[in-house]
Amino acid sequence: MSLFNKPLVSVVLASYNHVRFIRKAVESVLNQTMKSLELLVLDDGSTDGTADIVAKIKDKRLKLIRLSPNRRYHPRNIGIKMARGKYIAFQNSDDVWLKDKLAKQLKYFSNNPDTVLCFTRLNMIDEKGKIIKKSWAHGNLAGSNMNNDAWLRQLFIAGYNFGIASALVRKDKINKLKGFNETMVQMSDYDLWIRLLGLGQLYIIEEPLTQLRATKNNYSYPRKEVFLRSALENVDILNRYTEWPISKYLPNIFPDIMPKKEVSLNIQLVALARYAWRLKTPHHAFFSDQLLARLFNNPRSSHEILEYFGAGLKKEYIENRGKLKVEINK
User: Fold this and answer.
1) Looking at the chain, which residues constitute the CATH 3.90.550.10 domain(s)?
2) pLDDT tens profile 207-237
3) From 3.10.20.310, 3.40.50.150, 3.90.550.10, 3.90.1150.10, which CATH number describes the 9-221 domain?
4) CA within 13 Å, CB half, 179
5) Of 70, 68, 63, nearest to 39 (Cα)?
6) Given this model, what pLDDT does residue 69 score?
7) How far apart are CA 3 and CA 322, in angstroms?
8) Tens digit of pLDDT for each residue in 24-58?
């Protein structure tokens, strides 16, 4: 690929202290059958020589960006701003792609212009690269392909792991959303996928073209601090349903809980808050409480929702506040 020609795909690889795995991850990108790509490796202050290994790999499509100190910047958002491709893929410094991953995803995109986000199925591998048939990560791998309304309904109820290393996204769409939420540690990718679903279709290629490495050092490994961070971030993600670009689709996503006649967004949000409370998980309860508090705290929206639902809504809100569970257990 000429340096003067734009690549079709920009691959953003964020790395940190993966000296044992980084070469395999990088080579799995550079060895793709689809050659029109650039690989942006953003090393987030590694202290184990990870960046030095990348620096020794000679390929004109590879660019290494050393960031320091760790966690000062958001590597993936920096990579998105630097990306020149029409599509953006994300790779992790310990994961592996099969050689035809990008080619098969691009073929699907070319035949399905409404798709903005494409994943592949996943295989979990151990530290030696051996496929794991059962691990802590298998329990929430993404389900069957479905339309966007069904995806958004299911994702509101329960989370899925799509595997960020399997994602390929249209760059213009990710730019429209201004990238990842930089305050999130556990679920910034999940937050982005949900927002992208407000802009177009999601599809999973039914082949395990991506290998995710399952180790105890992984930030998603089920430790107590992971559960706590995830619970807090889940509340923020649920709030995405109250915002553009998803809020306008609430009647399609939740046809059974929304009023049958056309009503304002505020009325729809109360129906959503009541539904969330019935799901009986801590993050749904806190989302429901926060959403109703915002509506009640605004004189105009408070008047509107009490006129529609009656004074009993305020009593229901107060009673539910007394039932909130502030302790989060595994």
Assistant:
1) 9-221
2) 999 999 987 655 455 556 766 777 889 999 9
3) 3.90.550.10
4) 18
5) 63
6) 74
7) 62
8) 999 999 999 999 999 999 999 899 999 999 999 99
